[in-house]
Design goal:
The chain has about 100 residues and is of the alpha+beta class. The chain is built from 3 helices and 4 strands, in the order βββααβα. A hairpin with a 4-residue loop joins strand 1 and strand 2.
C-alpha cells in the first residue's frame, strides 16, 4: 500500500504565490445502450445534474468528460443534448480508475 496515495500533487505558482493542482488524466467513458440522454434546460449545471443522477455532485467531471463540457464553468448551454452514463457504469469506472493508481 502506498502511504502517499491520498496526497494531492501540488506545486506552488511562483509568480502569483498560490498553489496549483496538477492535472489528471480522466478515463475514457465508452457509450453504452444504458446511457440516458436529456436536453439541458436553462439553469442546468454539471454538479447539479451529477447530484440528480448519481447522488454525488463531485462526479460532475464524468458528465463534463462525456459531453466535452466544463472548461472553466459548470454551466450547461440550454437545449444541448447531454449523455448521462448509468450509475452502474460510473461505479465500475471508478473502481477501475482506483485500481490503476
Amino acid at each position: 500500500m502506498n502511504r502517499y496515495k491520498n496526497i494531492i500533487d501540488q506545486r506552488l505558482d511562483e509568480k502569483h504565490k498560490r498553489r496549483k493542482h496538477n492535472s489528471s488524466i480522466t478515463p475514457k467513458i465508452e457509450s453504452t445502450t444504458e446511457d440516458i440522454y436529456i436536453i439541458a434546460r436553462d439553469g442546468d449545471r454539471l454538479d447539479l445534474l451529477a447530484y440528480e443522477y448519481y447522488d454525488d455532485e463531485s462526479h460532475w467531471w464524468v458528465l463534463a468528460e462525456v459531453n466535452k463540457l466544463g472548461k472553466g464553468s459548470f454551466a450547461v448551454p440550454p437545449g444541448m443534448r447531454l449523455r448521462i452514463p448509468p450509475k452502474q457504469e460510473l461505479h465500475s469506472l471508478l473502481v477501475k480508475n482506483e485500481q490503476r493508481r
